[in-house]
Amino acid sequence: MTTTPKPLIAGNWKMNGVTSGLTALRTIAEGVSQHTDTFDGLICLPATMIERGTRLCNGTALLLGGQDCHFEQSGAHTGDISADMLQDAGASYVILGHSERRADHDETNTDVLKKSLAAYETGLTAIICVGETRAEREEGRAMEIVSNQLEGSMSKDANSQNTVIAYEPVWAIGTGLVPSNHDIEAMHGHIRQVLSERFGVEGESMRILYGGSLKPSNAEEILRTKNVNGGLIGGASLKSEDFLAICAAVPGN
Ligand SMILES: O=C[C@H](O)COP(=O)(O)O
Predict the structure, then answer these.
(1) Which of 132, 133, 214 to mutate to test the pocket of ligand 1 (most atoms within 8 A of CB)?
(2) Residue with CA closest to ligand 1 atom 7
(3) pTM for this one?
(4) Which of 10, 107, 143, 191 has the most crowded Cβ, counting Cβ within 10 A?
(5) Cβ of 213: how many Cβ atoms within 10 Å?
(6) b/e map of 16-36 (b: 16 or more CB within 10 Å)?
(7) How many helices, marked H, and strands, marked E, lie in the chain?
(8) Which helix (H) or strand (E) holds 165?
(9) Which are the catalytic amino acids?
(10) 41 labeled binding residue
(11) How far is residue 215 from each of residues 113, 167, 202, measured CA to CA in Å?
(12) CA of 1 to the centre of ligand 1 (A)
């Protein structure tokens, strides 16, 4: 039987947060803890902050995650972070294949798939990111691009517990631009169909997040869109009042 997934409201702090972040994190943790029945709250921190964040959020419902991991758990990989290391610091999630990593570090779908296997081995839930560029959308290829990313980045071992998909149109990230509600619904419906065809019931209950300029003013409309099971939030997750306002817009909250 298919169950509607519990929404996940996830923040991605990217390479930010050292100066004032920990105060905001504690405020977010306390706010999220008041609504554990309606959604799960997660902040994906810079790796160096996860252990401090774990201590600071002890006793709250806020989940913590990393933003990338290596596909091996240890070895001669200077500067890299393994899934085991993230978990050791207190993470339970890891973002994989964010468009900034695909662009800045030439990460391929195959790389993302291999990293997801490392995450599963450790017991981390992988948030696998997909999304088209502006040129690809204008060429009418958005769905084809996202289908290919899903096909290449997801292992056969993915299920509704160990994997979350984040649809993030590259042109909407940090720009203030957001697809029309019609376009978000169409893409999330497409992703649901791809997941259901490949993973059956597991694909029907896998969470699909929307990301890209999600903020308090557009959160209510986006979060009630069919097949939108939460959000992956960049800039607005750095301010506790904005992140908690987005949380307050979760349907049923
Ligand atoms: O991972 C988060 C996304 O890149 C969205 O970033 P943004 O909310 O700043 O547009």
Answers:
(1) 214
(2) 234
(3) 0.97
(4) 10
(5) 21
(6) bbeeebbebbbebbbbbeebe
(7) 11, 8
(8) strand 163-167
(9) 98, 168
(10) no
(11) 30, 16, 29
(12) 33
Residue 23, CA distances (Å) to 18, 28, 31, 204 in order: 10, 9, 13, 37
SS3 (DSSP) at 128: strand
Is residue 14 marked as binding?
A: yes
Q: How many whole angstroms from 181 Cα to the centroid of ligand 1? A: 17
How high is the pLDDT of residue 1? 57
Residue ranges and CATH numbers for the domains of the chain are 3-7+20-87 (no CATH), 97-115+124-239 (3.20.20.70)
Give the mutation target among 8, 9, 12 for probing the ligand 1 site: most ligand atoms within 8 A of CB. 12
Provide the ipTM: 0.99
How much is the pLDDT for 2? 61
Ligand 1 pocket, CB under 6 A:
12, 98, 168, 173-174, 211-214, 232-236
